[in-house]
Every structure is written in C-alpha cells, then in structure tokens.
Amino acid sequence: MLNVLLLVVTSFSTPCDVALQAPPDVPSLEPNVRYGSLYDWAGGYENAPLGVGRLKLESREDIWDWWLRIEVPLYSGPNGKHWGWFVNGSLADTSATPMGTSGMVETGYETMSFLVLEHRSDGWLRFRYGKPAGERDGVAWTHACHIETQGLRFESWEDRFTSGEISPLTFRSAVPHSLRAGFDESSEQIHRIVGDYHLEPLEFRGDWLRVRVTQPSDYCAGREIEVTEYEGWVRWRSSDKGPWVWYFTRGC
Predict the structure, then answer these.
(1) What is the DSSP letter of 87?
(2) How do residues 126-173 score in pLDDT, each as one tens digit?
(3) Which of 30, 64, 196, 243 qualifies as a cystine partner to 110, CB 3.0-4.6 A?
(4) Which CATH number fits domain 169-247: 1.10.357, 2.30.30, 3.30.450, 2.40.128?
C-alpha cells in the first residue's frame, strides 16, 4: 500500500489584500484647531505614556502638518474588524471627530509623531491617533502595509535615540536616578544623576541602557567647560510610561 501525503497549501491574506471602501470625505481641520499634544491631557511631560516608538515620516520631516493629509484605516485588533479611519486630522467612524495632534508628541522641530503602543512582528501595530472622545479611547490597530502607502513606517525609541539625529538624552523626571555598574536594581550604584547633565546612549538591554553621563552638560554650552564623565547602566523605560528619557526637540 502506498501512503499518499496530501499537501494542502493555504494562502494567507494580509489586510492590504482586502478591499476597503474609500475613506469618507472629511474636510481638513482649520488652523486654529490643529495644535496640541499628548502632554496636554495625559500626565504632562514627565508622566505621559510614550509607548514603544513612533510612526516616522519617510520624506521631509519639517512638513509639520503632514498628518492632515493621510488616510489610515483603523481596526479593533490584529486581523480584527475595520471600524473607522484617521483621515485629514479627524477620527471618522459613524461621524467625524476632530483629533488634530491631541494624541501626538513633538519628536523634532515642530515635527509631530503618532505614538506606537505595541508593535508586532507580523506588521500589526497599535497606535494612538488622538485623545479619548465619546466611546473611543483614542487608540486603534493598523497594519504596516497601510501606513507605508502614506509614507510612514515604525521607528522604535531605541533606533530613534541612537540615530544621531537628535540631541543627547535627559530623564523626563527631575528626580535623582541611579547609574549602576550592571543592568539590574541590585547592581552597585556608581553615581547619582541629578542636576545639570546629559546622557549618551551606548547599549540597550531590555529596560536597561548603558550610558555615558556628562556632568555638567556641555551640550550647547557655547564655550569650553570642565566636565566629569561616568559610564554605567540606567533604567530607561517602563511598561506604563515607555521611555523615561527624552531629548531636546528644538535644538539648544
């Protein structure tokens, strides 16, 4: 008797293989309702949750109002129901609700970015399109193939912080932070980071970052000053806040 092995080939479709209805015709927002940020309502600069990265505009990032010219479909989950759009600066589901930049943060000089809260290897990502409004919490899923058609891609904070395109880092909170000999809380504290300083990222290991601390900071000093440097590990993020560190988005 011959054993016959039947191979069943199953084709898996991506969200971009499924035809969507055209996004609704939503007029662009007026200039007086365009600007705002996550910091205005979600815990301020120190505590606002910044997720795992951002949606990066691949073209010129000095076009600050690019977000008024994109159409991103919104889903309830990975491979979930398509329920609405972010289009022309508004949430469009059963009606159009202006969002502006209410869920975004500045990541460059007058450059606003959407925050990515979760990024999966299959291309699905959960991002914040705006602040909570009505029954919506301001967060939705979309897929990389959709944002790529809009000239966007995911950039992790690790990649952003080591890109060479930004200033040195500082902690978002002004409270003292420990510089440790190793990447855990039980490691020896070798320096207490407080006051005037900046951090240069050297190596990431999960929630820990090896840094070079310069104190006082000579970044934008405008003259030569005497500094002391230390190297060690700091806790740089948490699940609720995302990165504890940030940078000057507008230069000196």
Answers:
(1) E
(2) 999 999 988 899 999 999 999 999 999 999 999 999 999 999 999 999
(3) 64
(4) 2.30.30
